[in-house]
Amino acid sequence: MILTFFTPGLDLRSIFLSFKTNHHPSGLTVSSHFEPCFSPWFRLPFMTEWLLIEEENPEFWRSQAKQTLQSVLDRELNTNVAKNILFFLGDGMGITTYTAARILKGQLQNQTGEETVMTMDTFPSVGLAKTYSVDFQIADSAATATAYLCGVKTNLNTIGVSAATRNGVCKSQKGNEVTSILKWAKDAGKSVGIVTTTRVQHATPAATYAHTASRKWYSDADMPAGAKKDGCTDISSQLLSNTDIDVIIGGGRKYMTPRGTKDPEYPRDYSSWGKRKDGRDLIKEWQSMKFGKVAHYVWNKTDFDAVDPETTDYLMALFEPGDLRFEADRDPNMDPSIVETTEKAIRILQKNPKGFFLLVEGGRIDQAHHAGRAYMALHEAVALDYAIAKGLELTKENETLTIVMADHSHPMTFNGYPFRGQSILGKSPLWAMDVLPYTTLMYGNGPGHKVANGTRPDIRNVNTKTKDYVQLAAVPTESATHSGEDVAVLARGPMAHLFQGVQEQNYIAHAMAYAACVGADQRHCQGKQTAAPVVHTTLTDDRNGAGAIHGSAVLLSSLLCVMLALTVGL
């Protein structure tokens, strides 16, 4: 096969594919005259670093593997009782998203990206979780959160209840409520908190404290009259009544105030005003409930920064009427980053000598995927990884069990044969049978399906690396759905080895509880009082950084390739 159509702006190697002699891994033929330009260390003008010439030497890979093997062999099991549980949840952060985010993080640091080591990559224990719900092969965030937080699988759209509850049927939830590990930790005397980039009433955080037949019952205004008559309550009111949560950080203030209450940040935006029909001001009620304690309610970064963790008992921070802004759109003068909110939460909670449980959710990864916006989803995942790094910095491995996982995945594909170091948000150098280019990342379904008269869009002159670009989708849907493959579970700290293998998603809650001696299973507590020091087992990769040694031969070879291309009239 000879490729004779080129994408403007691509590197020289995509042009060389028009010469027929040798075979590209994809099956395309290339010219032997340009073979040096396909060397693994050949870099192109759009790349900001040179690949290591050492990668051509087998000893480079053998030495690297030997070091990693020794690190694994030196690893010692940490069987301490976990004083703290730090739980990071990437909503919609399936393995494809995880991999693509790793590459993006490296490329944002002027690296090629593929060899980058994320903070979450360093966790020594890795497993997989099955995400299906009781009634659906592919689940939503409500059913999955109930599984990994409450230890019980349930039905789609329901939160904190068993599968005996029917979606949207209030009467069916009575007597079928199930509690979460956040409550088990609170009952054990630990401090507890939730941090999210969505509204605090959204599915993931709500599963820590609420019991509802519908994840959509954010306020009483969202509930049908029959449900209220049958005695069900909205999620926002349960945030106050069910569990005494020490730290609550996210968005969702419009569900907390009476209808018509103007928002302090957007007073002219009617959609941001209070929604409640019952006239309750839950923010004021929360403040009254904390009388005698040092409790702060804040809605902007200035007030948030002024909160002193050392003197604060309770914090409620609601930075938006609904969900927080995407990281790429966030105003750093108005809203703190997920790194900052994670740090504030930990510093408040860790004062408790009995420890803490903290859920930190990167919730808008999922929402960006639903919109078919890979740029936004990956930047949200990178931001979560930085929050994980901050969490590890502030805690001790011998006493803190840290978990990173996703609740479900999305139908985003990572495809084509992009060259090493090519932008993860760019286009494949190979074109399709319709003689049009396509992006490395695409969706199986979603709003990016734009076929007209049997032809898909020509994106040769489209910048696919912008935050507003919507990736192509194979099937037209208003919103991209979830996908049903297993998700990664990564663990570090006391009893991290419990999170290996392929497990049902509801197993996660029970394993965390066992490690921390909270909840019904107290076997791990017997004969163990304090955490003993353990060998630090974080795996590292010395290639993640700017420490590469770049030989003059690299520059010379690339210049020769450019000169050769000019010589033959390309």
Task: Produce the secondary structure layout.
Blueprint: H1 12-16, E1 22-23, E2 29-30, H2 58-73, E3 84-90, H3 95-108, E4 125-130, H4 141-150, H5 170-173, H6 181-187, E5 191-199, H7 203-206, H8 225-229, H9 235-241, E6 247-251, H10 282-289, E7 295-298, H11 301-306, E8 314-318, H12 338-349, E9 356-362, H13 364-370, H14 374-394, E10 400-406, E11 412-414, E12 441-446, E13 473-476, E14 487-492, E15 501-504, H15 507-516, H16 552-567
Parallel strand pairs: 3-9, 3-10, 4-15, 5-6, 5-9, 6-8, 7-8, 12-13
Antiparallel strand pairs: 1-2, 4-14, 10-14, 11-12
Helix pairs in contact: 3-14, 4-15, 12-14, 13-14
Structural class: alpha/beta
Q: What is the alpha-carbon Rg in Å? A: 26 Å
Instruction: Tell me the number of helical segments per DSSP (H or I, 4 or more residues long).
Output: 16
Oligomeric grouping of the chains: single chain
Cofactor: Mg(2+); Zn(2+)
Family: Belongs to the alkaline phosphatase family.
Binding site for Mg(2+): 91, 202, 204, 361
Catalytic activity: a phosphate monoester + H2O = an alcohol + phosphate
Entry summary:
With 570 residues, the protein is of the alpha/beta class. It contains 16 helices and 15 strands. The strands form three sheets. Strands 7-8-6-5-9-3-10-14-4-15 form a ten-stranded mixed beta sheet, with helices on both faces. It has a three-stranded mixed beta sheet with strand order 11-12-13.
